[in-house]
C-alpha cells in the first residue's frame, strides 16, 4: 500500500538521478576539454548552474517532507543524506567549472607532460560514476570501494607535487598543480558521498566490516 510520503520520495530520487547525470557530464567535459585543448567553459558553467539550482530544489523538498511527514528510520536517513549528497553534487559541478577556467587561463598545454593527470582523471571519472551508481542502487559495497580509489588520487597528488615545484616549466607546473588539486578535492567529496550512502544503508557513516557484510546485496 502506497504511503503519503512515497510520491515525494520518488520525486527526490528523480531529481537526484538528474543531478548525477549532469555531474558525470560536467566532470567529463571539463577534464576532456583540458586534455584535448577545447573550450567547454560555457557549457560546463550552464551544467554547474543547473546542478546548483537542483540542490536548492532538493533542500526545499526535503524540508517540506520533514515538516509534513515527520519521517523516521530508513526514510529519515535517505532524506537527510540526500541533502548532503546533493551538496556534494553541487561541488562537483563547481570544480568542473574551475577546471575549464584553468584551461581558459593557461591556453594550449599540449607541450606539458600530462601522464599523471591522465591517470588521475581516469580514476576520478570512475569514482564519480561509481558514487552516482552506488547512491542510485544504495549499494554499500560499491560505495566502500570509492575510498580505495580516493587513496590512489591522493598518492598521485603527493608524489607529483614535489616534482612540479622543481620543474623549469612554470606554466605546465602551475596548470598541472591546480588540476591535480581540483581532482584531489573531487575525490574528497566522492568519499563524503560514500559515507552518506553508508549511513543511509547501515545507519553508520563508517560501518564495520561485519555491518557492511550484513547489508551487502546478494547477487
From TrEMBL:
GO terms for biological process: intracellular phosphate ion homeostasis; negative regulation of phosphate metabolic process. It holds the Pfam family PhoU. InterPro entries: PhoU, PhoU-like_sf, PhoU_dom. Gene3D superfamilies: Phosphate transport system protein phou homolog 2, domain 2. Residues 17-100, 122-194 form the PhoU domain. This is Phosphate uptake regulator, PhoU. It comes from Nitrosopumilus piranensis.
Amino acid at each position: 500500500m502506497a504511503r503519503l510520503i512515497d510520491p515525494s520520495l520518488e520525486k527526490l530520487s528523480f531529481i537526484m538521478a538528474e543531478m548525477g547525470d549532469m555531474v558525470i557530464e560536467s566532470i567529463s567535459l571539463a577534464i576532456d576539454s583540458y586534455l584535448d585543448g577545447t573550450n567547454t567553459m560555457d557549457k560546463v558553467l550552464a551544467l554547474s548552474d543547473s546542478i546548483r539550482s537542483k540542490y536548492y530544489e532538493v533542500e526545499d523538498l526535503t524540508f517540506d517532507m520533514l515538516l509534513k511527514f515527520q519521517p523516521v528510520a530508513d526514510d529519515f536517513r535517505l532524506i537527510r543524506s540526500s541533502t548532503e549528497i546533493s551538496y556534494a553534487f553541487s561541488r562537483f559541478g563547481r570544480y568542473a567549472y574551475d577546471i575549464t577556467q584553468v584551461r581558459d587561463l593557461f591556453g594550449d598545454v599540449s607541450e606539458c607532460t600530462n601522464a599523471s593527470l591522465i591517470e588521475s582523471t581516469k580514476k576520478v571519472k570512475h569514482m564519480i560514476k561509481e558514487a552516482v551508481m552506488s547512491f542510485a542502487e544504495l549499494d554499500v559495497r560499491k560505495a566502500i570501494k570509492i575510498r580505495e580509489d580516493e587513496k590512489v588520487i591522493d598518492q598521485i597528488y603527493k608524489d607529483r607535487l614535489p616534482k612540479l615545484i622543481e620543474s623549469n616549466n612554470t606554466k605546465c607546473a602551475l596548470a598541472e598543480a591546480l588540476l591535480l588539486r581540483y581532482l584531489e578535492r573531487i575525490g574528497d567529496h566522492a568519499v563524503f558521498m560514500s559515507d552518506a550512502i553508508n549511513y543511509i544503508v547501515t545507519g553508520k557513516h563508517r560501518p564495520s566490516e561485519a555491518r557492511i557484510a550484513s547489508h551487502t546485496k546478494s547477487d
